[in-house]
């Protein structure tokens, strides 16, 4: 029980909730699109069952991700992926990713659509949440992941419109979210087994596992995502530019 009272646990919980809000907004859109043709009496059931199935699938995927991150070099690959996700968050593409979500007037068909679409869209969430859970210690990573996901469900499903409005009004939230992913990427990279274990992969530079090293790596990752994201956003043509071209 004491492990749930540590600052590291609650910092990681906060990170997971923020990641789910930032990267999980699409889930609310997918649920709405998939269930929009259901009869009103079945619509709530479709939303609840689809959300439950998607969350259960995500917990299973994160369990495997936490296990796989113990393999040398996979944390380094995950860190690069998180940097890319953070950059995409700061410089999103201007296309509609939900145009291929088909609605159904059958309950279980709509539930299946929600689960399959969520599976396709969950790679970024899974890697980011697994990275955040790494910082909380080995003993309670899965309870932390499940707790963070459960807390974020109502925020995503019922509070998505409010979250979207807040992001539109305060773009700094998105910027901070992208930098958070960079922070997790940096701390994940320096804790890769290939960097930690002095007896393995002798050609890989080893780093001392101190709070200072993790802090420097986290700050460096956050600044890297911010710099690349701003650079990509400046170079990418605006929607009205492409429309008039």
Automatic annotation (TrEMBL):
Q: How does it sit in the membrane?
A: Multi-pass membrane protein
Q: Where are the transmembrane segments?
A: 12-35, 47-67, 144-164, 171-195, 215-233
Phylogenetic classification of the source organism = Bacteria, Pseudomonadati, Pseudomonadota, Betaproteobacteria, Burkholderiales
Its protein name is YjbE family integral membrane protein
Q: Where is the protein localized?
A: Membrane
Source organism (scientific name): Variovorax soli
**Has UniProt tagged this entry with the keyword Endoplasmic reticulum?**
no
Principal location class: membrane
Q: Pfam family example for this protein?
A: TerC
Q: Which family does it belong to?
A: Belongs to the TerC family.
- Which keywords appear in this protein's UniProt record, sorted alphabetically? Membrane, Transmembrane, Transmembrane helix
- Superkingdom of source: Bacteria
Q: Looking at the keywords, is Nuclease present?
A: no
